[in-house]
Write a structure and sequence with these properties.
single chain; 351 residues; alpha/beta; Rossmann fold; ATPase_AFG1-like
């Protein structure tokens, strides 16, 4: 059982945030790790020329887009460059800098513009409803979608329709798809899968293939850190709070139950202002809905770079039963990698 929190601690389970469509849209920006990502700071590997080629093509894409937005005038010397296709898809294995390039494109684009993961956009539609979500993003000049999920046919069809309406209004789209670090078939290219799943829009996308190795050369071994039996998580949380940190302390079961009562679009507000998350009594999950909610929560925690201290089972071992053999394997592997980083104090850059 979780010890009673002191006055210096907060509990995530006590938070019942509200969030408006405008607030959700305002969160659709690159994570802090990519706040200053640029084409200039991308370092292509000379052993893989496709990285430089992708960088050059995205630069051209951005330049043509900017030119297309500038009205002609007295000093116009030539017609704006023409963008052949309104969409671009960055196709590559893990760790070749796809998210960096996606964020760099977002930074140079003119607004209105949005950047988010596939899950964040589906959460937006789920929170607001389809028509209000389309209306909210209507008129955007650029939408960036990181980690386009290819394992949920329903969500993929929803997003295809959603993007189709926006692109028909002139919105341009840039996307990557999810390639977790320790997934089976790491490094394979997913363009065929992506184009097949968005078949109604596939002719609108130019594919930029990016070969290469994971620039972090990160080992896939290792586990999430967990406090030993001689360490009380409440005592650890109190000690951190005494140092002036903003700490949350929750029982694992209570947190999982609470996540079921909060729409995933609001998860970002559950951790607002929290510097460290403490969890007591982590154990294996056997309910897939609960597991997927935890995945969505961990995504928000990872984006916010909030470390986790936990007792019980290491967090990367919570996905029990046949979950790792099912259709959501990629999502669980991504969450496991992120939970290892969040609990070991080694927050690596995104993909």
């Amino acid at each position: 059982m979780t010890s009673a929190p002191s006055k210096t601690l907060v509990r995530i389970v006590d938070r019942n945030p509200t969030i408006s469509g405008a607030e959700i849209a305002s969160e659709l920006t690159p994570p802090p790790q990519f706040e200053h990502a640029s084409f200039e700071s991308y370092r292509p590997d000379p052993d893989f020329p496709s990285q430089q080629a992708a960088l050059d093509r995205l630069n051209a894409f951005a330049g043509a887009w900017r030119a297309a937005q500038r009205p002609g005038g007295f000093f116009s010397r030539k017609r704006p460059a023409r963008i052949e296709l309104p969409g671009v898809y960055l196709d590559g294995g893990f760790g070749v800098g796809k998210t960096h390039l996606l964020a760099a494109l977002w930074h140079v684009a003119h607004g209105p513009k949005y950047f988010g993961t596939f899950i964040e956009y589906t959460a937006l539609v789920g929170a607001l409803g389809y028509a209000p979500a389309v209306q909210l993003l209507k008129g955007a000049r650029l939408i960036c979608i990181d980690e386009f999920e290819l394992d949920d046919p329903g969500d993929t069809m929803l997003m295809t329709r959603f993007l189709g309406e926006l692109m028909a209004g002139g919105t341009r789209v840039a996307a990557t798809s999810n390639t977790p670090p320790n997934a089976l078939g790491e490094g394979r290219f997913a363009a065929a899968d992506f184009l097949r799943e968005i078949h109604a829009l596939s002719s609108n996308f130019e594919t930029l293939r990016i070969d290469g190795l994971d620039y972090r050369r990160r080992a896939t071994e290792g586990h999430a850190a967990a406090l030993g039996p001689d360490h009380d998580v409440a005592h650890t949380a109190d000690a951190l709070a005494a140092r002036g940190h903003a700490i949350s302390l929750d029982g694992f079961d209570e947190l999982i139950a609470h996540l079921a009562t909060v729409h995933p679009s609001k998860y970002v507000k559950l951790i607002d202002g929290i510097e460290v998350i403490a969890l007591d009594g982590v154990h294996e999950l056997t309910d897939q809905n609960a597991a997927l909610r935890l995945v969505a929560f961990i995504d928000r925690v990872y984006d916010a770079e909030v470390p986790i201290v936990a007792s019980g089972l290491p967090l990367d071992e919570v996905f029990g039963g046949d979950m790792m053999n099912g259709g959501y394997r990629k999502k669980y592997l991504r969450a496991m990698s992120r939970m290892i980083a969040l609990t070991t104090g080694e927050l690596p850059p995104h993909d």
